[in-house]
Amino acid sequence: MEIDAVQLLKCVTKETTMIKRKHLFTLLIVALTIPFFKGSFVSASELNFAVEPVIPENQRDKTKTYFDLLVKPDIEQTIEINLRNDTENEVIVEPKVHSATTNLNGVVEYGPVDSKKDSTLKYDLNEIVQVENEVKIPAHSSIKVPLKIKMPKEAFDGILAGGITLQEKDTKKSENTETKGLSIQNQYAYVVALVLNENNNPVKPELKLNKVYPDQVNARNVINANLQNSTPNYINQLNVSAKITEKDKSTVLYETTKKAMQMAPNSNFDFPISLSGKKLEAGDYTLELTATTKADRWHWKKNFTIKADEAKKLNAKDVTIKKDYTWIYIVVGIILILVSILLIILILKRKRKKEEEERKKRNRIKRKKKKLAQQQSNQKKDN
Questions:
Q1: To bridge 13 with a disulfide, which of 17, 185, 219, 375 should be the other Cys (CB 3.0-4.6 Å)?
Q2: Which DSSP state fits 277?
Q3: CB 300: neighbour CB atoms within 10 A?
Q4: Cα separation of 42 and 49, whole Å?
Q5: What are 154-196's pLDDT values in tens digits?
Q6: In this structure, are strands 67-70 and 297-306 parallel, antiparallel, or unpaired?
Q7: Which of 223, 211, 210 is nearest to 318 (CA)?
Q8: DSSP class of 295
Q9: What does the alpha-carbon distance between residue 119 and residue 344 come to, in Å, rounded to a whole number?
Q10: Is residue 55 within 8 Å of 128, Cβ to Cβ?
């Protein structure tokens, strides 16, 4: 079982004060895991405190630097994390406990996420492990944070996995509310993994394919295949290969393969199948997906439908799709043709009107000449 002992999380806070938005917290896993050794503190320049898990006697593997405990049903145990403050000021830390989840990249998350609790998760870790809402570390001091574990009465096979997030409380009033424009404030936190076992009984992994549906990742169209690990154990070295065809046809429209993923116990994630900038088209489709580990293999064929309104809505938001302006060209062309026809009609009318006026003018001249000639003829007769 491969677990990062401590993860450094970066919390990016964006505040647009011109329109008085509330703080928007987005938790990003930084692409570095801070390794550390037993008996030493983990620290980072972005944080005002350092952490050290105190490994207890019932640790399954004493070489691990995260909590991997062998426990019994209905027992109570208190574990501790050392926090050290080397600064000149008091530091307030807000500990939180979360059950482990799996993100869309097939990576286990031990920190807080927005996703809902998995339907197969019987025991949520934050209901089993109790910790103070905040702890104060005096300047140039160390303290121990106690975490009280109360195991369920009912025995279970497998693993309960999660993490303890340790984030400094922001005690300074934001000055951004008095300024205009966009400001960005970075906040960091540690996450220490916590794994609870009651025995070493093997648990056979069970992977399920739930719904298949169109969606977007980073403003790009994808087909999501929701995969669920319904067992209380990690699924390691998970390889997934997926391809999509039109229903009852063999031509592959979209395909994605990803290797060496990991799923947390009793968790699910959306495996995204990229459309590579292509438009979503309404219709009936078939997903064929194969998932393998070193010991297991799963295979599914599942039909799904993309509705016209779904496709239209997602296509309009996809930043990689070139917008089709053909209809604009057609409308402009029609307008130009209509304007041209109107101009031709106006020109012809003016020409006909002018010709009619000239004809009438000639007729008037003829009548005058005829009348004059008649008068002259009458005068000659009189003479």
A1: 185
A2: T
A3: 16
A4: 9
A5: 999 999 999 999 999 987 654 454 454 555 567 789 999 999 9
A6: unpaired
A7: 223
A8: S
A9: 72
A10: no
Res 198 pLDDT > 80: yes
Q: Whole-angstrom Cα distance, residue 111 to residue 125?
A: 12
Is 263:228 a contact under the CB 8 Å cutoff? no
- Residue found by looking up tokens 């599942």 in the block: 302
Nearest to 260 by CA among 240, 279, 280, 237: 237
Token pair for residue 349? 């009318």
203/17 Cα distance (integer angstroms): 52
**Which CATH superfamily is 207-323 part of?**
Immunoglobulins (2.60.40.10)
pLDDT for the residue numbered 321: 79
For the chain, counts of helices (H) and of strands (E): 3, 20
Contact call for residues 106 and 267 (beta carbons, < 8 A): no
Those residues whose C-beta lies under 8 Å from the C-beta of residue 245, and which sit 6 or more positions away, are 251, 252, 253, 285, 286, 288
Fold agreement between 6-197 and 207-323? yes
pLDDT digits (tens, 9 = 90+) for 22-74: 333 333 333 233 333 334 455 555 789 999 999 999 999 999 989 999 999 99
Q: Which amino acid is at 301?
A: K
- Contact (Cβ atoms closer than 8 angstroms) between residue 174 and residue 15: yes
Please say whether the beta carbons of 8 and 197 come within 8 A. no
Q: Can you tell me the distance from the alpha carbon of 338 to that of 139, in angstroms, rounded to the nearest whole number?
A: 81
Q: Which two tokens stand for residue 56?
A: 């207890």
Q: Among candidates 269, 217, 288, 227, which has minimal Cα distance to 101? A: 269
Query: Which tokens hold the place of 309?
Result: 């309104």
Q: Which amino acid would we find at residue 164?
A: I
pTM above 0.85, yes or no: no
Q: Is 190 exposed, middle or buried (0-12, 13-18, 19+ CB in 10 A)?
A: buried
Distance CA 184, CA 161 (A): 33
Q: Count of alpha carbons within 13 Å of 10, Cβ hemisphere only?
A: 15
Residue 218: burial class (beta carbons within 10 Å; 0-12, 13-18, 19+): exposed
Place of tokens 């995260």: 66
Domain ranges of the chain: 6-197, 207-323, 333-364
Domain 6-197: state its class: mainly beta
